[in-house]
Amino acid sequence: MKLGIDLRCLPQDGSPGAGIAHAARAITQQLCAQQELETVCYVPVGASHPVTSTATNIVELKRRRRKSLMDAITRHSCDLLFVPSGAVTPALPVPAVPWVHDVDIYFHPEWFPQPWYKRILTTRLFLHGVQSAPLIFCVSEYTKQMLLQLARIPPERIVVTGEGGSGSLDSISDTEIQQAKQDAAMRLQEQGIQQPYVLAFGTVEPRKNIPFITDLWTSMGELRQGYDLIIAGKDGWKMQQIEPSIKRAAEASHEYGCALVRLREQTEAMKQDLLLGATLVVTPSLSEGFGLVPLEAAQARTPVIISNRGALPEVMGDGPWCLDLGDPDAWRLLLSELLMQPELRADFQRRQYEVAKQWNWEGTGRVVLDRIQQLF
Description:
single chain, Rossmann fold, 2 domains, seven-stranded parallel sheet, six-stranded parallel sheet, globular
Protein backbone atom coordinates (compact mmCIF):
# COMPACT_ATOMS: atom_id res chain seq x y z
CA MET A 1 0.00 0.00 0.00
CA LYS A 2 1.18 3.51 -0.79
CA LEU A 3 0.12 6.18 1.70
CA GLY A 4 0.01 9.81 0.65
CA ILE A 5 0.34 12.55 3.28
CA ASP A 6 -1.16 15.99 2.62
CA LEU A 7 1.20 18.47 4.30
CA ARG A 8 -0.36 21.67 3.02
CA CYS A 9 -0.87 22.67 6.67
CA LEU A 10 2.86 23.47 6.92
CA PRO A 11 3.74 27.19 6.54
CA GLN A 12 5.38 28.01 3.21
CA ASP A 13 7.74 30.50 4.84
CA GLY A 14 9.62 27.66 6.52
CA SER A 15 8.53 28.68 10.03
CA PRO A 16 7.54 26.05 12.61
CA GLY A 17 3.90 27.12 12.63
CA ALA A 18 1.47 26.41 15.44
CA GLY A 19 0.13 23.23 17.04
CA ILE A 20 -1.30 21.52 13.96
CA ALA A 21 1.91 22.02 11.98
CA HIS A 22 3.93 20.66 14.90
CA ALA A 23 1.70 17.60 15.17
CA ALA A 24 1.70 17.06 11.40
CA ARG A 25 5.50 16.94 11.31
CA ALA A 26 5.67 14.54 14.24
CA ILE A 27 3.12 12.05 12.89
CA THR A 28 4.62 12.25 9.39
CA GLN A 29 8.03 11.40 10.79
CA GLN A 30 6.56 8.33 12.48
CA LEU A 31 4.66 7.11 9.42
CA CYS A 32 7.57 7.61 7.04
CA ALA A 33 9.83 5.60 9.35
CA GLN A 34 7.67 2.47 8.98
CA GLN A 35 9.41 -0.02 6.69
CA GLU A 36 6.17 -1.83 5.85
CA LEU A 37 4.65 1.36 4.42
CA GLU A 38 5.45 3.16 1.16
CA THR A 39 4.87 6.89 1.58
CA VAL A 40 4.62 9.98 -0.60
CA CYS A 41 4.38 13.46 0.95
CA TYR A 42 2.76 16.40 -0.82
CA VAL A 43 4.59 19.45 0.57
CA PRO A 44 4.25 23.18 -0.27
CA VAL A 45 7.40 24.75 -1.70
CA GLY A 46 9.33 26.45 1.12
CA ALA A 47 7.77 24.44 3.93
CA SER A 48 9.97 22.82 6.55
CA HIS A 49 9.13 19.12 6.62
CA PRO A 50 10.55 16.34 8.84
CA VAL A 51 11.26 13.68 6.21
CA THR A 52 14.89 12.63 5.86
CA SER A 53 14.43 9.11 4.53
CA THR A 54 15.18 8.68 0.84
CA ALA A 55 12.52 5.96 0.78
CA THR A 56 9.80 8.64 0.98
CA ASN A 57 8.86 10.46 -2.19
CA ILE A 58 8.62 14.23 -1.58
CA VAL A 59 6.36 15.97 -4.09
CA GLU A 60 6.56 19.77 -3.94
CA LEU A 61 3.43 21.85 -4.49
CA LYS A 62 3.89 25.32 -5.97
CA ARG A 63 0.64 26.40 -4.33
CA ARG A 64 -1.46 25.14 -1.44
CA ARG A 65 -4.60 25.11 -3.54
CA ARG A 66 -6.77 22.11 -4.35
CA LYS A 67 -5.66 22.00 -7.99
CA SER A 68 -1.99 21.69 -7.02
CA LEU A 69 -2.76 18.71 -4.81
CA MET A 70 -4.99 17.07 -7.43
CA ASP A 71 -2.29 17.44 -10.10
CA ALA A 72 0.35 16.05 -7.74
CA ILE A 73 -1.75 12.98 -6.90
CA THR A 74 -2.35 12.40 -10.60
CA ARG A 75 1.40 12.47 -11.31
CA HIS A 76 2.51 10.73 -8.11
CA SER A 77 -0.35 8.48 -7.09
CA CYS A 78 -1.19 6.95 -3.73
CA ASP A 79 -3.78 4.45 -2.54
CA LEU A 80 -4.97 6.49 0.43
CA LEU A 81 -4.41 10.09 1.52
CA PHE A 82 -3.79 10.91 5.19
CA VAL A 83 -4.70 14.53 6.01
CA PRO A 84 -3.03 15.70 9.26
CA SER A 85 -4.85 19.05 9.22
CA GLY A 86 -8.25 17.33 9.27
CA ALA A 87 -9.50 19.36 6.28
CA VAL A 88 -10.08 16.99 3.35
CA THR A 89 -10.10 18.50 -0.13
CA PRO A 90 -13.35 17.56 -1.94
CA ALA A 91 -13.56 15.26 -4.98
CA LEU A 92 -10.15 13.65 -4.56
CA PRO A 93 -9.26 10.74 -6.87
CA VAL A 94 -8.35 8.59 -3.83
CA PRO A 95 -10.04 7.99 -0.45
CA ALA A 96 -8.86 10.35 2.30
CA VAL A 97 -8.56 9.92 6.05
CA PRO A 98 -8.60 13.11 8.19
CA TRP A 99 -6.91 13.67 11.54
CA VAL A 100 -9.24 16.01 13.44
CA HIS A 101 -7.77 18.28 16.11
CA ASP A 102 -10.81 20.27 17.22
CA VAL A 103 -14.23 21.39 16.05
CA ASP A 104 -14.49 24.52 18.21
CA ILE A 105 -15.53 26.71 15.28
CA TYR A 106 -18.93 24.98 15.18
CA PHE A 107 -19.69 25.59 18.84
CA HIS A 108 -17.96 28.96 19.32
CA PRO A 109 -17.69 30.82 16.00
CA GLU A 110 -17.08 34.02 17.95
CA TRP A 111 -13.58 32.78 18.77
CA PHE A 112 -12.54 32.81 15.11
CA PRO A 113 -11.77 35.57 12.60
CA GLN A 114 -13.58 34.26 9.52
CA PRO A 115 -16.55 36.21 8.12
CA TRP A 116 -19.81 34.26 8.27
CA TYR A 117 -19.92 33.37 4.57
CA LYS A 118 -16.41 31.93 4.57
CA ARG A 119 -17.07 30.07 7.81
CA ILE A 120 -20.18 28.44 6.33
CA LEU A 121 -18.20 27.30 3.29
CA THR A 122 -15.23 25.88 5.20
CA THR A 123 -17.33 24.17 7.87
CA ARG A 124 -19.57 22.53 5.27
CA LEU A 125 -16.54 21.31 3.34
CA PHE A 126 -15.00 19.96 6.54
CA LEU A 127 -18.15 18.06 7.46
CA HIS A 128 -18.41 16.62 3.97
CA GLY A 129 -14.81 15.44 4.27
CA VAL A 130 -15.30 13.61 7.56
CA GLN A 131 -18.69 12.16 6.64
CA SER A 132 -17.32 10.66 3.42
CA ALA A 133 -14.09 9.36 4.98
CA PRO A 134 -13.74 5.59 5.46
CA LEU A 135 -11.97 6.29 8.76
CA ILE A 136 -11.53 9.35 10.96
CA PHE A 137 -8.73 9.97 13.44
CA CYS A 138 -9.18 12.36 16.39
CA VAL A 139 -6.44 13.58 18.70
CA SER A 140 -8.55 13.10 21.85
CA GLU A 141 -11.70 11.50 23.18
CA TYR A 142 -13.00 15.02 23.78
CA THR A 143 -12.66 15.90 20.10
CA LYS A 144 -14.30 12.61 19.13
CA GLN A 145 -17.32 13.30 21.32
CA MET A 146 -17.68 16.83 19.96
CA LEU A 147 -17.48 15.49 16.41
CA LEU A 148 -20.18 12.92 17.18
CA GLN A 149 -22.44 15.77 18.28
CA LEU A 150 -21.93 17.44 14.91
CA ALA A 151 -22.17 14.64 12.40
CA ARG A 152 -24.05 11.39 12.01
CA ILE A 153 -20.97 9.21 12.00
CA PRO A 154 -20.84 5.69 13.48
CA PRO A 155 -18.60 5.92 16.57
CA GLU A 156 -16.59 2.89 15.42
CA ARG A 157 -15.34 4.88 12.42
CA ILE A 158 -13.66 7.40 14.71
CA VAL A 159 -10.33 6.41 16.27
CA VAL A 160 -8.60 8.36 19.06
CA THR A 161 -4.85 8.63 18.52
CA GLY A 162 -3.50 10.96 21.18
CA GLU A 163 -0.36 12.99 20.51
CA GLY A 164 3.16 12.84 21.78
CA GLY A 165 4.44 16.25 22.85
CA SER A 166 8.16 16.91 22.48
CA GLY A 167 10.36 13.92 21.78
CA SER A 168 13.50 15.85 22.72
CA LEU A 169 12.11 16.98 26.09
CA ASP A 170 10.71 13.54 26.82
CA SER A 171 14.11 11.97 26.11
CA ILE A 172 15.84 13.91 28.91
CA SER A 173 16.49 11.44 31.71
CA ASP A 174 15.92 12.04 35.41
CA THR A 175 19.68 12.31 35.92
CA GLU A 176 20.02 14.88 33.12
CA ILE A 177 17.03 17.13 33.77
CA GLN A 178 18.59 19.50 36.31
CA GLN A 179 21.59 20.14 34.07
CA ALA A 180 19.23 20.66 31.12
CA LYS A 181 17.30 23.25 33.13
CA GLN A 182 20.49 25.04 34.16
CA ASP A 183 21.72 25.12 30.56
CA ALA A 184 18.36 26.48 29.40
CA ALA A 185 18.47 29.21 32.06
CA MET A 186 21.92 30.29 30.88
CA ARG A 187 20.78 30.50 27.26
CA LEU A 188 17.73 32.50 28.30
CA GLN A 189 19.91 34.91 30.26
CA GLU A 190 21.81 35.58 27.05
CA GLN A 191 18.42 36.51 25.54
CA GLY A 192 17.77 38.98 28.36
CA ILE A 193 15.51 36.77 30.51
CA GLN A 194 17.15 37.20 33.91
CA GLN A 195 14.40 36.74 36.49
CA PRO A 196 12.29 33.68 37.42
CA TYR A 197 9.06 33.62 35.44
CA VAL A 198 5.62 32.15 34.95
CA LEU A 199 4.98 31.15 31.34
CA ALA A 200 1.86 31.23 29.16
CA PHE A 201 2.63 29.80 25.72
CA GLY A 202 0.71 29.60 22.46
CA THR A 203 -0.67 31.70 19.63
CA VAL A 204 -2.43 34.64 21.27
CA GLU A 205 -6.09 34.27 20.28
CA PRO A 206 -9.42 34.10 22.16
CA ARG A 207 -9.26 30.42 23.09
CA LYS A 208 -6.01 30.90 25.00
CA ASN A 209 -7.86 33.16 27.47
CA ILE A 210 -4.92 35.51 28.01
CA PRO A 211 -7.02 38.22 29.74
CA PHE A 212 -7.84 35.71 32.47
CA ILE A 213 -4.19 35.19 33.37
CA THR A 214 -3.16 38.85 32.99
CA ASP A 215 -6.01 40.00 35.24
CA LEU A 216 -5.18 37.23 37.70
CA TRP A 217 -1.50 38.19 37.66
CA THR A 218 -2.31 41.84 38.34
CA SER A 219 -4.64 40.96 41.21
CA MET A 220 -1.92 38.97 43.00
CA GLY A 221 -0.11 42.13 44.03
CA GLU A 222 3.00 41.50 46.10
CA LEU A 223 2.50 37.71 45.92
CA ARG A 224 4.12 37.82 42.46
CA GLN A 225 7.12 39.82 43.64
CA GLY A 226 10.35 38.60 42.05
CA TYR A 227 8.63 36.82 39.17
CA ASP A 228 7.97 37.93 35.61
CA LEU A 229 5.04 36.81 33.50
CA ILE A 230 6.10 35.76 30.00
CA ILE A 231 3.45 35.52 27.29
CA ALA A 232 5.11 33.71 24.39
CA GLY A 233 3.53 33.10 21.01
CA LYS A 234 2.78 34.98 17.84
CA ASP A 235 -0.12 37.39 17.57
CA GLY A 236 -3.20 35.54 16.39
CA TRP A 237 -6.61 37.03 15.69
CA LYS A 238 -9.04 39.34 17.48
CA MET A 239 -6.06 40.98 19.16
CA GLN A 240 -8.11 44.14 19.80
CA GLN A 241 -9.96 42.13 22.45
CA ILE A 242 -6.77 40.87 24.07
CA GLU A 243 -4.12 43.60 23.86
CA PRO A 244 -5.71 45.99 26.41
CA SER A 245 -5.45 43.37 29.16
CA ILE A 246 -1.80 42.72 28.30
CA LYS A 247 -1.09 46.45 28.38
CA ARG A 248 -2.80 46.89 31.75
CA ALA A 249 -0.86 44.00 33.27
CA ALA A 250 2.42 45.32 31.88
CA GLU A 251 1.80 48.76 33.40
CA ALA A 252 0.91 47.26 36.77
CA SER A 253 3.88 44.88 36.96
CA HIS A 254 6.76 47.21 37.76
CA GLU A 255 5.64 48.23 41.25
CA TYR A 256 6.59 44.80 42.61
CA GLY A 257 9.89 44.41 40.80
CA CYS A 258 8.48 42.22 38.07
CA ALA A 259 7.59 42.62 34.41
CA LEU A 260 5.27 41.29 31.76
CA VAL A 261 7.41 40.08 28.86
CA ARG A 262 5.82 39.58 25.44
CA LEU A 263 7.77 37.21 23.15
CA ARG A 264 6.22 36.97 19.69
CA GLU A 265 8.86 34.98 17.85
CA GLN A 266 10.63 31.84 19.08
CA THR A 267 12.50 29.00 17.48
CA GLU A 268 11.65 25.46 18.54
CA ALA A 269 14.86 25.44 20.59
CA MET A 270 13.87 28.62 22.43
CA LYS A 271 10.40 27.21 23.08
CA GLN A 272 11.98 24.23 24.79
CA ASP A 273 14.29 26.49 26.79
CA LEU A 274 11.29 28.54 27.95
CA LEU A 275 9.49 25.39 29.10
CA LEU A 276 12.59 24.06 30.85
CA GLY A 277 13.39 27.40 32.49
CA ALA A 278 9.93 28.36 33.74
CA THR A 279 9.02 28.15 37.40
CA LEU A 280 5.46 27.39 36.36
CA VAL A 281 3.37 27.11 33.17
CA VAL A 282 -0.26 28.26 33.10
CA THR A 283 -2.83 27.11 30.50
CA PRO A 284 -6.21 28.73 31.26
CA SER A 285 -7.63 27.83 27.84
CA LEU A 286 -11.33 28.05 27.05
CA SER A 287 -10.87 24.92 24.94
CA GLU A 288 -8.10 22.66 23.67
CA GLY A 289 -8.49 19.80 21.21
CA PHE A 290 -5.52 18.15 22.90
CA GLY A 291 -3.12 20.30 24.92
CA LEU A 292 0.45 20.10 23.64
CA VAL A 293 1.83 22.96 25.74
CA PRO A 294 0.96 21.53 29.19
CA LEU A 295 2.09 18.09 28.03
CA GLU A 296 5.44 19.48 26.91
CA ALA A 297 5.74 21.42 30.17
CA ALA A 298 5.27 18.16 32.09
CA GLN A 299 7.89 16.50 29.87
CA ALA A 300 10.22 19.38 30.80
CA ARG A 301 9.47 18.64 34.49
CA THR A 302 7.93 22.07 34.92
CA PRO A 303 4.69 22.20 36.93
CA VAL A 304 1.59 23.38 35.12
CA ILE A 305 -1.86 24.68 36.05
CA ILE A 306 -4.60 23.91 33.52
CA SER A 307 -8.26 24.76 33.10
CA ASN A 308 -10.83 21.98 33.20
CA ARG A 309 -11.94 22.75 29.63
CA GLY A 310 -11.67 20.73 26.44
CA ALA A 311 -9.24 17.83 26.40
CA LEU A 312 -6.92 19.28 29.05
CA PRO A 313 -8.13 17.03 31.93
CA GLU A 314 -7.97 14.03 29.57
CA VAL A 315 -4.35 14.76 28.68
CA MET A 316 -2.99 15.97 32.02
CA GLY A 317 -5.31 14.27 34.48
CA ASP A 318 -7.93 15.73 36.78
CA GLY A 319 -5.50 16.47 39.59
CA PRO A 320 -5.28 19.49 41.93
CA TRP A 321 -3.67 21.40 39.06
CA CYS A 322 -6.93 21.27 37.05
CA LEU A 323 -9.07 24.27 37.97
CA ASP A 324 -12.44 25.76 37.04
CA LEU A 325 -12.20 29.06 35.17
CA GLY A 326 -15.27 30.20 37.11
CA ASP A 327 -13.19 30.25 40.32
CA PRO A 328 -10.35 32.77 39.89
CA ASP A 329 -9.74 32.72 43.65
CA ALA A 330 -8.70 29.06 43.39
CA TRP A 331 -6.30 29.97 40.58
CA ARG A 332 -4.84 32.83 42.61
CA LEU A 333 -4.38 30.62 45.66
CA LEU A 334 -2.73 27.74 43.81
CA LEU A 335 -0.52 30.07 41.79
CA SER A 336 0.73 31.82 44.92
CA GLU A 337 1.26 28.50 46.73
CA LEU A 338 3.33 27.12 43.85
CA LEU A 339 5.47 30.26 43.69
CA MET A 340 6.16 30.14 47.43
CA GLN A 341 6.46 26.38 48.02
CA PRO A 342 9.27 24.53 46.19
CA GLU A 343 8.12 21.23 47.69
CA LEU A 344 4.66 21.65 46.13
CA ARG A 345 6.25 22.40 42.76
CA ALA A 346 8.36 19.26 43.09
CA ASP A 347 5.25 17.20 43.88
CA PHE A 348 3.44 18.54 40.81
CA GLN A 349 6.53 17.92 38.66
CA ARG A 350 6.71 14.29 39.70
CA ARG A 351 3.00 13.52 39.39
CA GLN A 352 2.50 15.35 36.10
CA TYR A 353 5.55 13.72 34.55
CA GLU A 354 4.05 10.31 35.35
CA VAL A 355 0.83 11.38 33.62
CA ALA A 356 2.80 12.61 30.60
CA LYS A 357 4.49 9.24 30.11
CA GLN A 358 1.31 7.78 28.61
CA TRP A 359 1.67 10.04 25.54
CA ASN A 360 4.30 9.47 22.85
CA TRP A 361 4.51 9.80 19.09
CA GLU A 362 5.53 6.17 18.61
CA GLY A 363 2.21 5.06 20.08
CA THR A 364 0.28 7.61 18.03
CA GLY A 365 2.00 6.48 14.84
CA ARG A 366 1.26 2.84 15.60
CA VAL A 367 -2.46 3.54 16.12
CA VAL A 368 -2.66 5.40 12.81
CA LEU A 369 -0.68 2.78 10.89
CA ASP A 370 -2.58 -0.21 12.32
CA ARG A 371 -5.99 1.23 11.50
CA ILE A 372 -4.95 2.35 8.02
CA GLN A 373 -3.61 -1.11 7.25
CA GLN A 374 -6.93 -2.62 8.33
CA LEU A 375 -8.60 -0.69 5.49
CA PHE A 376 -6.55 -2.72 3.03
